[in-house]
From TrEMBL:
One Pfam family it belongs to: Anticodon_2
Known role: Catalyzes the attachment of glutamate to tRNA(Glu) in a two-step reaction: glutamate is first activated by ATP to form Glu-AMP and then transferred to the acceptor end of tRNA(Glu).
Organism: Hyphomicrobium album
GO biological process: glutamyl-tRNA aminoacylation
Main location: cytoplasm
Position of sequence motif 'HIGH' region: 9-19
Protein's recorded name: Glutamate--tRNA ligase
Motif residue range(s): 'KMSKS' region: 249-253
Assembly and binders: Monomer.
Catalytic activity as recorded in UniProt: tRNA(Glu) + L-glutamate + ATP = L-glutamyl-tRNA(Glu) + AMP + diphosphate
Designated gene of the protein: gltX
Superkingdom assignment: Bacteria
Length: 454
């Protein structure tokens, strides 16, 4: 069976780390199984969906390297939803209702006051044609509910327990008998996600629906929708949701964790992908050389059912670890755009000191830019300048030079190295001086040791 999965965000905002985890798990599974990964824009909410957000979603996915082979948008598929709704009406599974929001609210309050669960009483189902006509004559427009399986005495009883073997959570059951029949068409004729998603998944041949566990109850309803439409249901996998480092749900703080803001903060796409794909799994959180390596590790059985802990500090640390092992070829283009030369020799020298790629600019400045003089021990740095060997320099130059300086000055340890590092780089720490020295070059080294701006 060939695998087809989809990532189905609503373009009502930018993607955040929670969405991206869903997108990634789908993408990695498709990649690993040689299947297709589609982008479906769930934009039936025309008030809140915008093209700008849709564009932002595409940009974020592309930045992460998650390519999709096909894009669909629900707003262009109304005819399909109308056809499916007609079929369900003919099968007696959609029924019209006329209550206003206020009336529904009053019903729920009455049920709660009597100690009953606030489940819709199916009044719409019991209306006679005359009653319906009277309501419409009042100017009311119907909304439509999907009749879930039920044990309602006036109706043919259907089994209410829906079960499936979840790819992540194992055996799952939802008792739809405890749910209200969901509204699938609003009074203004617009469709709701629960329904449109099933029509699309069936028509597009989606084989696996991988999404957050906040959709488990929806799955109970949607399995019944697949059945009612006479379609085969896909396999379902529900991953846990993210919690913050403090152990509390992240849902309210997700806005601040948009992909856009993490990108602006200098997080590498591969660090973000590695982190969001590996948290909440039994695999160690380690930088991955590419997305394929991550896909190679993917397994539903590794995904924990417990919440996945998202810690921005841990992400930053992973970002640094990734940069420390990133080969020059992978960043050459970006370094060039930043106006940084120096090739692999520069990159290999500084990468171990970077937290974000941008940091490379300040090391480039140390090597090729002008530094303010920082002389801590004039006697030592003057001697050091006098002992500088002639060029050409390589990574043995440092050892030879420092050995001579040690003898000539009688200094050793910190008293020897600290003034040199400060004069040469203007900093307390950084890459190995042995590697930096030939990059800085003789004339700049000499000027800096003599306390001249260079
Ligand atoms: N638009 C839905 C959401 O973002 C899609 C859920 C699904 O994958 O079915 O929650």
């Amino acid at each position: 069976m060939s695998v087809t999965v989809r990532f189905a965000p609503s373009p009502t905002g930018r993607l955040h780390v929670g969405n991206i985890r869903t997108a990634l798990l789908n993408w990695l599974f498709a990649r690993q199984s040689g299947g297709a990964f589609w982008l479906r824009l769930d934009d039936t909410d025309t008030q809140r969906s915008t093209e700008e957000f849709a564009e932002g979603i595409r940009r974020d996915l592309e930045w992460l390297g998650l390519r999709w082979s096909r894009e669909e948008r629900q707003s262009l598929r109304t005819d399909r939803y109308v056809a499916a709704a007609e079929l369900l009406k003919a099968r007696g599974r959609l029924y019209s209702c006329y209550e206003s929001e206020d009336e529904l609210d009053r019903k729920r309050k009455r049920q709660l006051a009597r100690g009953l669960p606030p489940i819709y009483d199916r009044a719409g189902l019991k209306l006679t044609d005359t009653e319906r006509a009277a309501l419409e004559a009042e100017g009311r427009k119907p909304h439509w509910r999907f009749r879930l399986a039920n044990s309602d005495a006036d109706l043919a009883p259907l089994p209410t327990i829906v079960s499936w073997n979840d790819l992540i959570r194992g055996d799952q059951t939802v008792d739809v008998g405890s749910l209200s029949d969901p509204v699938v068409i609003r009074a203004d004729g617009s469709f709701l996600y629960t329904f449109t998603s099933v029509v699309d998944d069936a028509e597009f041949g989606v084989t696996h629906v991988i999404r957050g566990e906040d959709h488990v109850t929806n799955t109970g309803v949607q399995v019944q929708l697949f059945e009612a439409l006479g379609k085969e249901q896909p396999a379902f996998g529900h991953h846990s949701l993210l919690i913050g480092a403090d152990g509390h749900a992240l849902s309210k703080r997700l806005g601040a964790l948009s992909i856009e803001s993490l990108r602006e903060a200098g997080i590498e796409p591969l660090a973000l992908a590695s982190y969001t794909a590996l948290i909440g799994t039994s695999d160690p959180i380690e930088p991955q050389p590419n997305l394929d390596a991550l896909a190679g590790r993917f397994a539903f059985s590794k995904i924990s059912t417990g919440p996945a802990r998202f810690d921005p500090e841990e992400l930053k640390a992973l970002n640094a670890r990734l940069l420390h092992v990133t080969p020059y070829a992978a960043v050459a283009g970006r370094l060039e755009e930043m106006g940084i030369g120096g090739g692999a020799a520069f990159w290999d020298t500084v990468r171990g000191n970077l937290s974000v790629l941008e940091d490379a600019a300040s090391w480039w400045q140390v090597i090729g830019g002008e530094l303010a003089p920082q002389i801590e021990d004039r006697e030592l740095t003057d001697k050091a300048a006098a002992l500088l060997p002639a060029e050409p320099w390589d990574d043995t130059t440092w050892d030879t030079w420092v050995a001579a300086l040690k003898t000539a000055s009688g200094r050793k340890g910190r008293a020897l190295f600290h003034p040199l590092r400060l004069a040469l780089t203007g900093r307390e720490d950084g890459p190995e001086l042995k590697q930096l020295l030939p990059l800085i070059g003789r004339s700049r080294t000499e000027a800096r040791l003599l306390g001249r701006a260079a």
